[in-house]
Amino acid sequence: MSHGSHETSGSILKQPKAVWAVAFACVIAFMGIGLVDPILPAIAESLQATPTETEMLFTSYLLITGLAMLGTSWLSSRIGAKKTLLIGLGLIVIFAAAAGLSQNVESVIGFRAGWGLGNALFISTALATIVGAASGGTGSAIILYEAALGLGIAIGPLLGGLLGHLSWRGPFFGTAALMAVGFIAIVAFLRPERDAEKPVPTKLSAPIRALRQPALAVLAAAALFYNIGFFVLLAYSPFPLGFDALGLGFTFFGWGLALAVTSVFVAPLLTARMPRTRVLWIALPLLAVDLVAAGLVIANPTALVVCIVIGGLVLGVLNTVLTECVMEATDLQRSVASSAYSAVRFLGGAVAPPAAAELAHLIAPDAPYYAAAGSVAVALVIVVLGHRALRRVDRVEAEPALTEAEAITAGDAA
User: Fold this and answer.
1) Which helix (H) or strand (E) is 310 found in, with range?
2) Which of 83, 95, 106, 255 could anchor a disulfide with 115, C-beta 3.0 to 4.6 Å?
C-alpha cells in the first residue's frame, strides 16, 4: 500500500482509542460523496424535481467544499486540529439531519452546501491527527488511514442504496447518526494536548497566491477539466441506468471499490516505474475512451455498469497521481498547495452534474458522456503542453508514505 509500510511493527491494530475514533469518522466522511448517488432519481421523483435540480446536490456540496478548502489551513493553524475536526463533524451532523428533514429540493441543495463546509474542515485535518496520535510508527498510521478512506469511498454508495431503498431520507439520517457517534468518540478519546505543537499560522491569501506558480496553475487547470469527466460519470450515470436505489448502490459500490483499490495500490506501483507525467499521458486518454464507450452503450445498462467500474479504476490512478504532482510541483507548504489545487478542481466537479443533465435534456442522453470525454481530452492537452513546467514532478524520488497518503486524501476527497 504505502512505501512506508516497512515502518510498521505488527502493531497496526494496537492503536490508541483516539486513532480508532478519527479513523471511524474518516470512513463516514468519505462516504459522504457517493452516498447521495443512488437516491438521485428517488429525490427527483419524491420532491418533483428535475434531473438538473437534483444534480445541484453535488454542485452545492463541491462548490462550498472547494471554497472552504481555501480557508481550512488558515483556520486549523490557529485553533488546532481537534477543534477543527469537531467543528467539521458537528456541521456534517447538523446539515445531514436537516437535509433528511427537508420538504423541497431547494432545502436539500442548501443543506448539502453546509455539509460540504463540514467535510472540508474535517478532511483537511484528519490525516495529520491520525499520524500524530498513532502508535507503531507513521507507516502503520498511514495504512490505517488509507484503509479507512478506501472503505468510506466504497461503502458510501452501498449504504446510500440500502437506506435509500427504504426512503430517500434514510442516507441523510444514517450519516447524521454515524457522524454523531464519531463526534462523541473524538470528544471522549482525542486528548487536547495532542495539539500542543500547532503549525505555523498560514495567511488566508496563501492558496490564491499559490496559483501564480506555473506548475500549480497547469495542474489545477488540468484537474478542472478532468473533474468534469469524473463527475459526469459519477453524478449523471444514475439517470440513464434506470436502476432503483439498491441497484445504483451496488453499481457505485463497484465503482468506489475500483477507485479505492487503484488509488491506494496501483498508483504507487505505476509512479515507482515511470514518470508521473507519463502516467497522466496514459490514463487521461483511457478515461476519455471509457467515457466515449459509455455514450455508445448508454442503452445497455449492463455495458454501462462495466464502463462505470472501469472508469473507477482509471479515476483512482488519476486522482492520486495528479495530487502527488501537486505535492511535489512547488516549494510551497503542502497544505497551501493542496488547498489551492482542490479549490479549482472542485469547481469543475461543481459545474459538471447540472450541465450534464441540461445537455441530456437539450441534445440527447448520450451527449454528456461525449462532452465529458472532450473535457478530459482538454486536460490531456494542458498536461502535455505544460510539460516543461512539470519537469520537477518527474525528478522526485520514491514517495514518502506521508506524502502518498496526503495525495490519496486530496485526490479522493471529492
Assistant:
1) helix 301-329
2) 95
| Residue 368 burial by Cβ neighbours in a 10 Å radius (0-12, 13-18, 19+) | buried
- Answering whether pTM is above 0.90, one says no
Question: Which residue from 32, 35, 29, 51 is spatially nearest to 240, judged by alpha carbons?
Answer: 51
Query: With respect to CATH, is domain 3-412 assigned 1.10.3470.10?
Result: no
Q: How far apart are CA 237 and CA 250, in angstroms?
A: 13
Mean pLDDT calculated for residue range 367-383: 97
Give all strands (DSSP E) within 296-411, no chain letters. none
pLDDT band for position 406 (cuts 50, 70, 90): low
Contacts of 136 (CB under 8 A, 6+ apart): 7, 8, 9, 10, 11, 12, 14, 15
Domain borders along the chain are 3-412
* 123 close to 413: Cβ distance less than 8 angstroms: yes
